[in-house]
Amino acid sequence: MKKHLHIGILALQGDFAEHAQKLRDLGCEPVEIRRANQLESLDGLIIPGGESTTNAKLEAAASSFSSSATPEIPIFDAIKKKAQNGMPVWGTCMGSILLAKEIEGSAQGRIGLMDISVRRNAFGPQRASAEIPLEIPALGDKPFPGIFIRAPLFIKAGKKVEVLCTIDEGFVMAREGNLLATAFHPEITSDDRVHRLFLNMIGSGK
Ligand code: GLN
């Protein structure tokens, strides 16, 4: 793996600090990203958990404030372009919603890159937040502690999408080339296997 990876974490709103700590524990120096012009030097980007509608509103508002002397493209568009040029992007929970091309029954703002359909807040009130041991063959035999907080469920996947973890109701982890989505929150567990998987995706340049 190449050294000194520049990994950004979208930091408009949400649990970006937890991802940053995880990356530091793995020897990386994360960068908090709030502006499109910060994306240029990045090798990879994490979009954290949070509230997808709030993030969409914040990014729309930020774009409208950008000065006309130095117009800046909206950050969702800039992320989309970088990802289409190969930059690995991983979305956790809200991040997976922003990455999805389809959000069931909603026209809310999104980056819209990954060929999956998501159902927001899919787990019902009694399972709004839960820890579920997940079987994820790509991470080895040991179950992964899946922490779900008002999480989405992934309900449809295009042909190029590799489903990495299935539960009874649908699936909760998937990869499509340089894009990774988890409906759960690996950043608030002591297990670093998904962060390592993402670092490998960056290191291998896939
Ligand atoms: N419920 C949030 C949404 O729909 C996602 C929750 C999370 O990221 N933990 O945007």
Describe this structure in words.
The protein has helices spanning 16-25, 52-65, 75-84, 94-99, 193-203, and strands spanning 6-10, 29-33, 44-47, 89-92, 100-103, 114-119, 129-134, 144-149, 153-157, 162-167, 170-176, 179-182. It is of the alpha/beta class. It has a single domain (6-204), classed as Class I glutamine amidotransferase (GATase) domain (Rossmann fold), CATH 3.40.50.880. The strands form three sheets. It has a seven-stranded mixed beta sheet with strand order 2-1-3-4-12-11-10. It has a three-stranded mixed beta sheet with strand order 5-6-9. Strands 7-8 form a two-stranded antiparallel sheet. The longest helix is centred in the N-terminal third of the chain and has 14 residues, at 52-65. The protein is globular and about 55 Å long. Bound molecules: glutamine (GLN). Residues 49-52, 93-94, 97, 120-121, 149-150 line the site of glutamine. Glutamine binds next to helix 4.
